[in-house]
Design brief:
alpha/beta, Rossmann fold, DNA polymerase, domain 1, seven-stranded mixed sheet, rRNA (cytosine-N4-)-methyltransferase activity, EC 2.1.1.199, methyltransferase, RsmH
Length: 327
């Protein structure tokens, strides 16, 4: 979920495009569904309330696993929580003896509880340790800004944050850390703001793009998304539905390209002719081509939804493509 508010008050978690995700999944009695990004449990709760079905929730964040306790008590025998990465869903489900499933929901990015906890270091809205790790293990964002070479920092900010002043920011970071180690979100945000002017067009905080880039890098979020999409292809039963909500163009582009490849819709010479397809048989049928965005009422109720886009597809009966295969 994108950084879209400036208030220091924590926000109540509201699942984005909830009704649209439920419709895309076509939730039914007796179905088995995977919520690959459990987070605060919004999608899981809605799925379990919509039908007499089962849900497997996956999350790499230990705090999210703890938050599942009330739902586990409310839906005994219908909910299973697995700690792990959604990119490993095929292996995780196999290890628990769970066969093909009827739906997979993915809400890509950082969750509201993660953003709103200063101790997690995801947000520049309040000061906290410069951490940003979803799994609470591995190198932190502080390790990146203090230990990486200037050129590597600039590359991360440009590639993952689309920060056009990435070299200037990297230079400022290296200069600042020569005096004292950069340990907090406020320190880093102030460094970025000192060299990146606030946009008059959109008013976005100058630190937004750099914080996004560091978070994506620390958690390998784009790699995780690629693995998660391929994993969903492997675990979905024929006729099963995939619903993916993303919040940034980098993520949405990956989802769109994956589904176009896997549906055989890439490469059509015109809308009047069938797609020119070679290679493995299509494993998905697109459920809409342009994606679904939040309605005006939802945006008024939940400003954090403003950049969200839902893409959905139905699994065919074709075998999953070999790992790394492209159309």
């Amino acid at each position: 979920m994108s950084e879209t508010t400036t208030s220091a008050e924590p926000q109540i978690h509201i699942s984005v495009l909830l009704a649209e995700v439920l419709a895309a999944l076509a939730v039914r009695d007796g179905g088995v569904y995977v919520d690959g990004t459990f987070g605060a449990g919004g999608y899981t709760r809605a799925i379990l309330e919509a039908a007499d079905c089962q849900v497997i929730g996956i999350d790499r964040d230990p705090a999210a696993i703890q938050r599942a306790e009330p739902l586990l008590a409310r839906f005994p025998g219908r909910l299973r929580i697995i700690e792990g990465r959604f990119g490993d869903m095929a292996e995780l489900l196999a290890a628990h003896g769970i066969g093909p499933v009827d739906g997979v929901a993915l809400d890509i990015g950082v969750s509201s509880p993660q953003i709103d906890d200063p101790a997690r270091g995801f947000s520049f809205r309040f000061d906290g340790p410069l951490d940003m790790r979803m799994s609470l293990s591995g190198p932190t964002a502080a390790d990146v800004v203090n230990d990486y070479a200037e050129a590597d920092i600039a590359n991360i900010l440009w590639r993952l944050g689309e920060e056009r002043l990435s070299r200037r920011v990297a230079r400022a970071v290296v200069a600042a850390r020569a005096t004292a180690r950069i340990e907090t979100t406020a320190q880093l945000a102030d460094i970025i703001r000192s060299v990146v002017p606030r946009s008059k067009k959109d008013g976005i905080d100058p630190a937004t793009r750099s914080f996004q880039a560091l978070r994506l890098h620390v958690n390998d979020e784009l790699g995780e998304l690629d693995r998660g999409l391929a994993g969903a292809e492997r675990v979905l039963a024929p006729g099963g539905h995939l619903a993916v909500v993303s919040f940034h163009s980098l993520e949405d582009r990956r989802v769109k390209d994956f589904l176009r490849q896997r549906s055989g819709s890439e490469g059509a010479p015109s809308r009047h002719m069938p797609a020119a397809h070679s290679g493995p048989a299509p494993t998905f049928r697109l459920l809409g081509r342009s994606g679904v965005t939040p309605s005006e009422p939802e945006l008024r109720h939940n400003p954090r939804a403003r950049s969200a886009r839902l893409r959905a597809a139905e699994r065919t009966d074709a075998p999953a493509w070999p790992m790394g295969e492209a159309a």
